[in-house]
Each structure stands twice: as C-alpha cells, then as structure tokens.
Design brief:
The structure is a homodimer. By secondary structure, chain A is α/β, with parallel strands linked by helices. The first copy, chain A, contains eleven helices and 26 strands. Chain A has a six-stranded mixed β-sheet with strand order 5-2-1-9-22-21, covered by helices on one side. At the A-B interface, strand 4, strand 5, helix 5 and helix 11 of A face strand 4, strand 5, helix 5 and helix 11 of B.
Chain lengths: ~450, ~450
C-alpha cells in the first residue's frame, strides 16, 4: 500500500491501490527480481540508463569481433512483453528521498518516481585502484559500448600498423590485458586467436606474428580462485597460444602508448584492456546508505539495506554476507539468486511474514581460453578441462542468453567462426579513440 | 609502368614493376573495379575512410531495427582474402597531385599514395538543397552510422513519450520522411510497421496509435520514375499502412521539433528523415577536375575524367552520359557496371588498345513498401506488385549481399521478423542526439 501520495510528475497509469516495486538496473539481478514478481499483486518498474539488458559474459566476444553487438543485448521491454505488471523507464538514478520514498531521476521529462519497495541492482563499474592514467587510457569491458569501442580500437591499430609498420615497435600491435581472472584469460585467448587466425589473413603485407598479447596478473597464478590443476591447464594453453603470461606483476601507470609495470619495465603498447577489478556502481554512494569496502551497499542476510526496511540491494552492488564472515563474489549467479530472494522478501513483507536469510547455491565456475580450451569447476568436485569444459561453456552460455533470436544468431556465428576461422563483424563502426586514431 | 618515382612514404611492398591502380571508395563501383582486375597484371589499392563495404539498399532496415548493423557491412579486407593483388588503405582522400600522380591522404602515418591509374568511386552524400536547418537537424540515411543514429533516435523518442505523453503533441512520435522515391517509400513503410506491429507491444502504456509517419514528395506522385500502376499500388499500400502521403508538397525549413512545409503548415515533429536527394561526394570538388550539376565528375563515354587519360570516375560520383543527352541515375547497378568497364579500360590502355564506350544495361528497378508489398519493373515490360514483387525483392537482395555469413544472418532475421512480427536489435547503442536526448 502506498504510504505517501504519488509524485505529481509520475505519469504512469499503474494502479494506485497496488504496491509499487522499483528495480534499479536491468542486469541479471534486476531481471530476476522482476520475473519473480510476475504473479505478485504489485506493479514493477525497472529503471536503467540503457534500454537493453547486456549479457556480460560474452562482451569479450563482441570486443574481438566474434559476435554482433545486438547478439548479446536484448531490449528490456521485449523481455517483459508477456508480463503485464512490469514497466520500464530509461533513466539514470541520481538520488533518493527515503522519507517520501521517491527516486530522483536524471530524466528531462520525468524527474522522479515514487516507490513502496526498492531493489537496488545497479551492478558494478571498473575499479582502476587509482593507478595513474588507467581511467583515461585503459579500455574497460563492462558495457556493450565498451566492447564496440575496444573492437574499433583493435582493428584501428592494425590499420595504422599496416600503413606504417614502424608503429609496431611503438606498441601498435602490443595488447596488454590486466587481470588474470576469467575475463582477462578469455580476452587474452580471444585476442590471440583473432590476430593469428583471422587478422593474419586480412593483413597480408603486415607481419602479424609481431602482434603480442601480454597478460598481467598480480597473484602468482592465473585464475586465482580455481584449482591448481585448472590454473596450470589455463596457463599452458595460453602459452601455446602465444600469450605472454606474467604473474606476480602489476601495472603502475598507463599512458596512451606506454604501460609501466611494477618491475620497472616500460612496455610500448597502444592498448591496455582492464580486466583487473570492478567496484560497486557509483550509484551506491549517491543513495545515502551505508557502504562497505569497494563501495558496495551493506545489507543484512535477508538482503535488506541497513536502516531501510523496504529497500534491498542485490548482486554486484551489494555486500552480501556469505555466512562465513565474508561477502559473496560479484558473479552472475549471485545476482540472479539474490534477485529472486529480494522478490520473495517483498512478497513476505506484504503478507506480514518474517524475513528469511539468503543462501547462495554455488553451481560452479568456468572460464574459456580458446577453441576447445576451457576449465570448469562444478559441484561434487567435478573438474573439466579442454574440449568437455569448452562444450559445457558453450552450452551453458547459449542456454542462459535471453531470446530465441539471440541464441540462434550466436549459435550461427559460433558455428561459422568454428568452421571457417572467420570473424564476421570486424568492422570499425564509429570513431576510434586511440592514439593516431582515424579522423 | 610507373612514370614517377614512388613516394618515399609509400610503405607497401607491392611490386614496382607492375602498374598500380588506386580505387577511391569501397562501394558497389569500387569493389566491381577491383574484382574485375583479379587476373590483370596490376596491383590494386582500395582507399576508403571506412574499413567495410556498406550494403546501402538495406540501411533502412538497420534504421528500423530489422537487421543488425554488421549484417549489411563487410570488412573490405575480407572481401579480397583470395585476391592477392588487392590491398586496402583506411584513409580519407584530401587531394591529388595530377602531375606526380600522387593521392594525398588524411592519414597520420601515410600522407600520400602514388598511382599509375586512378578510379574515383567515392559515391554520394545527402543533398539538402540549402534548406534552412536540414543539414543540422535532418537524419540522412547514407552510411551505416546514419542508420544506427536514426535507430537510436527513433527508440529514444518512444522512451521520451512514454515518460511524458505530453511530448506526443510536441511531435515526439511524428516522423516526417522527405522524398517519395524508393528510399523514402521503404523508410515510411518500415517505420509504420515498426510502430504499429512491434513498438505497440513494447510500449503498453503509450497510445502508439498516435505515432504518425508523414511522407513528403515534391512531385504529384510517389515513386516518380515508376509506371502509374506501380505508383498507385505503392500509394494505396502506404495509405492502408497509415502513412500520411503528401505529394506536391515540400519542406522549406527544419528545426529540432518543427518541420515547415511549402504550404505554410508547421508540423510538430522531432524527426525528419532525409531521403529527398543525394549529390556527388564532396571529394569530387577536392580533386580539381571538371564537375557538372550536382557536383558530379564530368567523364567521357569511356568513363575517363576529362583531361586525365589515366583516371576514371564511376558510379554516383560520376556524371556518366546516357547516350541520349542526359546522365545515368545514381543506382547500384550503374556503379557496378561502370566499375567493371573502368577496369576493362585500364587493361585496354595497358595493352595499347582503343577505349570503348560504356553501355548501361538497365535490369529494372524495385521498391518495397512493407510485408508482402513491393513493386518491381523489369525488362520486357514485366511489372510485378504485391507478394511476387516482394519475394523477388527479398531474393535479389539476399543474392547481392556479400558473404555467406551476412546472407545467413539476414535470412534468419527476415524469417524471424516475418514469423513473429518481432524486431531483434531494437537497442539504443550510444547516445541519442535528438531533442530532449537521454544523458
């Protein structure tokens, strides 16, 4: 039941007698909350500054020209065609009036939105840890536009080196990937395949063998959370693919054409891909709620935001207690499962029922390195590597993509890429922002 | 045989004993020239400021969210994987030194490129005829980025109207298409289908029936070059699709939210799609060659540029005599056929043979209006309309698309769109530049 009058500028036609749930963010967490509320006696509004859901696990394939950008994006409104109680608002959230339960939007036509229950699922952003130059010159890989920007830049560097091969020594074809977690390993492997199997055919005059991928990881191993056997497998596969893996190393500063390492070495490199860390969305600090290390919103074990009985935080933006003194990692399954729990909590609170603790069910983790090369660590100590892990990875990602059309398109592209060693969408669409960029 | 020493900054490894053909532009004309030279004893360099070929006839489907942008683009280097005598250079041409036979490039690493034979296939650009405000506020549809920009804007206007329905009266959902030729008719029909069959499901709270498409054509009929029967068919189909067709009308000025017509009427409209006319690429005037009306390069009947025995102009950028006192229209088949003729002329000139006249073979013309609605006028007075014309249109465009992957993707998308009335890629990727745009 609404406890405050509706904001005068709230134009929606929703039923004023029903509770209004506002979900900030259309990522895995936000979608899971909204879907779980399909049969609840509430109206749901999802607010996101983009009109589409992004399937983050495949961003690196868009960046390396393996998939079309639209293949891994799905219009939020389309996801809820058949769920009549969900509305969408494309806007950025700038703040909240907790007293009036009103969300403030950076939207020219609708500056606020009132709510009875709030679910904050705003996700994460790159964390550059204050490394000089990183925020200006590194290429993050967290949004669809990031992936397209990186693709444009990679192809642009090859065009530049083809026009003036002396740029190779300047680092035009040296690609530094920072972060040896699953994203970094996936990017490094995909770049190596793109260069040596695809672009080597495009650039016949260029000595593409000089293109280098350097993977920097601060820990002594790649894929730190995986088992030693998986770590060794990944490292060996990367090595055979020609990736220069440097563990126990870190980046200390970034310039447009130079990367400085902790060891003092200065790498000539026009490209640094940032896969080293994420932090909670900056929205967390705009909401005037308690935050923990990394800017994540402090929540109780029921996912309620501390001090706000009717508000929840889920997924990457939330510091969700793991029950063992720590917090859960920033992973898609945590977001989805916590999203469903928040929806259940809202329903319980409307029925006057007691809140329950959220329990995360770890279904395992996977990382792909390249063609028929992946590692998977599943429950019951099942560990896969090589082709079985790779096939599992393909299947899981196809199944979890939203929309039949997207699945069909990704499947066709993957089959095509596999059979032909081709990459269709290697087009530079829009300006390249890199050094010596095209006009 | 090169007649001048190679420019010092020309880094390519091509054989200096072979003639060098430079082709400006990777459109239908430029590609046809390069392909025709596959077995000639020459090296070919294609220069284009984009690294991909754009299949212009389907741009309107990208703009109306029917196809992915990458579906109608193909990397130029990929097209010539198997043709060893073709190189590519991504650069804009800024001028030419006819004496030294050197092309000047706006490229940071390679400012010039020498040639023995030059083929100018630079295409066309929108012609706003000096209408006040048109260059700043109209949406052209001539490049892939134009199509993506228009798609973002259309979807952004629906989001804005959904947030504040009072914007509908301000013209947020009024889309003016200027030009009743094939492109204008295709855009108008596709917009109408997008609004009433697709977006009406996305925007349940919005009265999408208020979305209007207004087609403005200066002549008294739509599709002026077609037969009266085809014109009537197109007009009737547009009418049943809800398009407000206004013939004998013109636009006199354009503002961000207002379009003023010759009749004095001021239409509230946030969107004006420019399909009213094209002119030769501005490059034509930078080359210091004789140009005709519309800025097209004057060529002889052998396609040689007047005063330059070793240089040719083809396709949209050239004023090609039709042999009856006029010039050939700006159409893809003219570009392809003239491209092949220019290649043959180069071979003939190398063998000391006499030049020949170019003869254009008109294979007919088509325009599609919407689902199972098209008109086609083929040789031997064969005229099709409705479903047979539409199926012919689909088949012809699938066959002329470059690349199996693109054909497969377009076919899958078309089948999907036809069966489901869905449009997959309706995502706003990148900023909307329209009035009241999202931050």
């Amino acid at each position: 039941m609404p406890v405050v009058p509706a904001a005068v500028n709230d134009m929606s036609d929703r039923d004023r007698d029903r509770d209004h749930v506002v979900v900030i963010g259309a990522g895995f967490g936000g979608l899971a909350t909204a879907k779980r509320l399909a049969h609840a006696d509430v109206d749901v509004t999802i607010v996101d500054r983009r009109n589409y859901h992004t399937f983050h696990p495949l961003l690196y394939q868009v960046a390396t020209a393996g998939l079309n950008s639209a293949d891994i994006a799905y219009a939020v409104r389309g996801i809820f065609h058949k769920q009549a109680n969900v509305s969408f608002r494309q806007a950025s959230v700038t703040g909240v009036d907790w007293q009036r339960r009103t969300l403030e939007l950076d939207h020219p036509d609708q500056p606020s939105l009132d709510f009875d229950h709030l679910v904050v699922a705003a996700g994460a952003a790159a964390n550059y840890f204050g490394i000089p130059g990183a925020a200006d010159h590194a290429f993050p890989l967290y949004a669809l536009t990031d992936a397209v920007t990186l693709r444009n830049h990679i192809l642009g560097r090859f065009e530049a080196a083809d026009a003036d091969p002396s740029l190779i020594d300047d680092g035009a074809l040296t690609f530094v990937v920072v972060g040896g977690g699953p994203t970094g390993v996936e990017v490094a492997g995909a770049l190596s395949e793109l260069f040596h199997k695809v672009l080597s055919k495009d650039f016949r005059m260029l000595d593409v063998a000089k293109a280098r991928v350097v993977l920097i990881e601060m820990a002594d191993v790649v894929l730190p959370p995986f088992s030693p056997a998986s770590q060794r497998h990944a490292r060996e596969r990367l090595r055979t693919m020609g990736v220069d893996v440097r563990t126990g190393e870190a980046v200390t500063s970034v310039a447009p054409t130079r990367v400085t390492l902790r060891s003092g070495e200065e790498l000539p490199a026009h490209t640094l891909v940032w896969a080293a860390g994420v932090q909670a969305s900056p929205l967390a600090s705009a909401l005037d709620v308690p935050v923990t290390k990394g800017g994540r919103i402090a929540v109780g074990r029921d996912l309620c935001i501390e001090g706000h009985r009717h508000a929840y935080a889920i997924g990457d933006v939330a510091a969700i207690p793991d029950g063992k003194g720590g917090v859960l990692p920033m992973l898609a399954p945590v977001a989805s499962q916590s999203g469903r729990h928040a929806a259940d909590e809202i329903i319980r609170s409307m029925h006057g029922q007691r809140s329950r603790r959220f329990h995360y069910l770890d279904k395992g983790t996977m990382a792909t390195i390249g063609r028929r090369a992946a590692v998977a660590e599943l429950p019951l100590h099942i560990r896969l590597s090589g082709t079985p892990a790779w096939v599992s990875w393909l299947g899981l990602h196809l199944l979890t993509l939203i929309g039949f059309r997207n699945r069909a398109s990704v499947f066709v592209n993957w089959a095509w890429n596999y059979l032909t060693w081709d990459r269709g969408p290697r087009i530079i669409l829009g300006p390249d922002r890199g050094p010596g960029a095209m006009p």
